[in-house]
């Protein structure tokens, strides 16, 4: 039996908070909702995410799910109000700053920060889903003074949500997300910035590469300035390394040093191979198969039906935006050793494919 | 009737050259093949891409499709050997350098450089496809001395391949691809480089964002060092701008200047919106719908069949790699005004969706 028996209080009923609430309700726990916007509580409650918290309620676990800039004060307030056994966690995207904010609090040992790696492009309780965390990494970043019993309660929440607990110190966590999230976001944003105001006939040459590189830069600048600003020291340290390497790159390009340029590109290639593969395993050799697909409803269904009949699993799909024709190119990623089989199966059904 | 009547000679029977050859054969033209590797000519010829060139053949158009570093000398050699009316083009990814290489050649007015925006991740004639260029932009970058008749022949080739001609000067072309391709590639490579050698428990927090940003950095370093090195001055100029902006970013992050950080992120957001949308139109408001899909053959087919039944067109698809579970999250991009309709249709068929 889980050590998490409830009630669970959710402070902040946005996308993440309401999704956690729904997952807890699904597991049969009593869920208490609070938010500075009462209409959010009503909406979340109407979705079956729990009931408004009353002053008599005594939660076992408080989950603080508020915007980055409000984390510290909200966590302290939760500890101030907590019963002697209540555990407090938060789901903010940085972990050293909230820990600093509770330093010296008499109940600080019952605070254990955490961070689910799940979608943040959309917001609000209406986008919530109890499966949001299914199979996703969820960092648990306990401070050195955290009580083991409190850590166990937070770990139970992570497991209840179907996520994969990843234990890191708060400082390690912040360095990790600087590397895997914040610095990539900033560099994507710099690349995207070079497109703003460019001549349309130049932008007409945009292919899939630049779309991929810049996609995350489409996120909300206000939210990301809070997230990244809250992790300033880890981000600045890594960004300074990137700047130094950019200087080397600029020197290699400017001086015609092909070997230097190739060496920097090879370092990048090695980095792409370091990203863990599907299901947490080592990266698998994949092959891309391109298929021409008429751009109207039903054609993708026919393609995937034919692909499904082949018995070859498709690991990833992308539709290559085609700037001029009512035909899309669909890119199917499949395990290298099954690619020919899939290609033959699709060609036999009349699809035009190429590698 | 097209001004392109053949024969067309393809010099370099790799992916691009053989694909052009196949498109020309499909249009009924006589195609002559040559390559420094005789086995490539045999392979391409075996695929129906044309016949080996003989000394007696007189091509109307020579298409030079060789690696970047060999472009200049191969184009000059083609002009040296050309009959008085033969036109020469190339499909290299930079355009100022090959034009410089033919400067002063007596037949220089019959050289018109071009550049199809089509896949280069794979190589060799076996990956070739006559539809490779269908609907893709194809830059035509004539120098100031190019003969109008020569430009018309190259334009006819572009149209025969089903591509969309984009007229630019060679210098403009090189600036455009520095912006839409080379600098994004280099920055993706720098981001990827920060992952090389990082702790596996840090990399475990990698989400879709960093995978998107770094995807192009998986390209062949040797090929890209030739491509980017061949466009050194345009790349270095833009890269220097990015470096200056990175310094501003570093200062904003380091000094806690949230407004400055947000302003840089907003500039990036504006850039993502400048990229042309599907079918060359203005970017459309899109919404992402996430659907949980069991990770085995047939489930994607069922999803797309249900989506097809709804009559809502799916503009893009991505499978979100799920590091721990045999369930994938599929992200469907649809026009904002049709999203609720699709969501309702899928939910009614038992799919679990969220925005």
UniProtKB/TrEMBL annotation, chains A, B:
| Prephenate/arogenate dehydrogenase domain segment(s) | 6-283
The family classification in the record reads: Belongs to the prephenate/arogenate dehydrogenase family.
Domain ACT residues, every copy: 288-355
What EC identifiers does the entry list? Answer: 1.3.1.12
- Kindly tell me the pathway this chain contributes to: Amino-acid biosynthesis; L-tyrosine biosynthesis; (4-hydroxyphenyl)pyruvate from prephenate (NAD(+) route): step 1/1
Q: State the reactions this protein catalyses.
A: prephenate + NAD(+) = 3-(4-hydroxyphenyl)pyruvate + CO2 + NADH
Q: Which UniProt keywords apply?
A: Amino-acid biosynthesis, Aromatic amino acid biosynthesis, NAD, Oxidoreductase, Tyrosine biosynthesis
State one molecular function term (GO).
Answer: prephenate dehydrogenase (NAD+) activity
Protein name, as recorded: Prephenate dehydrogenase
Q: Which InterPro entries match?
A: 6-PGluconate_DH-like_C_sf, ACT-like_dom_sf, ACT_dom, NAD(P)-bd_dom_sf, PDH_C, PDH_N, Preph/Arog_dehydrog, Prephen_DH
Matches recorded under PANTHER family = PREPHENATE DEHYDROGENASE, PREPHENATE DEHYDROGENASE [NADP(+)]
Database matches in Pfam families:
PDH_C (PF20463), PDH_N (PF02153)
**Coiled-coil residue spans:** none
């Amino acid at each position: 039996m889980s050590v998490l028996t409830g009630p669970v209080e959710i402070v902040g009923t946005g996308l993440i908070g309401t999704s956690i609430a729904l997952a807890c309700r699904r597991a049969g726990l009593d869920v208490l909702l609070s938010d500075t916007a009462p209409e959010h509580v009503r909406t979340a409650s109407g979705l079956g995410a729990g009931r408004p918290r009353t002053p008599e309620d005594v939660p076992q676990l408080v989950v603080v799910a508020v915007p980055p800039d409000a984390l510290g004060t909200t966590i302290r307030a939760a500890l101030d109000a907590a019963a002697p056994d209540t555990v407090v966690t938060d789901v903010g995207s940085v972990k050293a700053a909230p820990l600093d904010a509770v330093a010296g609090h008499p109940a600080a040992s019952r605070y254990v920060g955490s961070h689910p790696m799940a979608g943040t492009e959309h917001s609000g309780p209406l986008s919530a889903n109890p499966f949001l965390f299914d199979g996703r990494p969820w960092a648990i970043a306990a401070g050195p003074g955290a009580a083991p019993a409190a850590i166990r309660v937070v770990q139970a929440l992570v497991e209840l949500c179907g996520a994969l607990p990843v234990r890191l110190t708060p400082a390690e966590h912040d360095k990790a997300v600087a590397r895997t999230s914040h610095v990539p976001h900033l560099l994507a944003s710099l690349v995207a910035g070079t497109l703003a105001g460019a001549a349309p006939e130049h932008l007409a040459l945009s292919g899939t590469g630049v779309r991929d590189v810049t996609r995350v830069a489409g996120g909300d600048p206000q939210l990301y300035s809070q997230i990244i600003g809250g992790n300033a020291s880890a981000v600045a340290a890594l960004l300074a390394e990137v700047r130094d390497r950019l200087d080397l790159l600029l020197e290699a390009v400017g001086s015609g040093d092909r070997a230097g340029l190739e060496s920097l590109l090879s370092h990048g290639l090695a980095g792409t191979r370091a990203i863990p593969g599907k299901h947490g395993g080592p990266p698998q050799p994949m092959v891309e198969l391109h298929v021409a697909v008429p751009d109207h409803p039903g054609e993708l269904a026919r393609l995937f039906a034919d692909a499904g009949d082949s018995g070859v699993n498709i690991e990833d799909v992308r539709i290559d935006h085609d700037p001029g024709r009512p035909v899309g190119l669909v890119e199917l990623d499949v395990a290298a050793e099954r690619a020919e089989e899939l290609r033959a199966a699709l060609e036999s059904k009349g699809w035009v494919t190429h590698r």
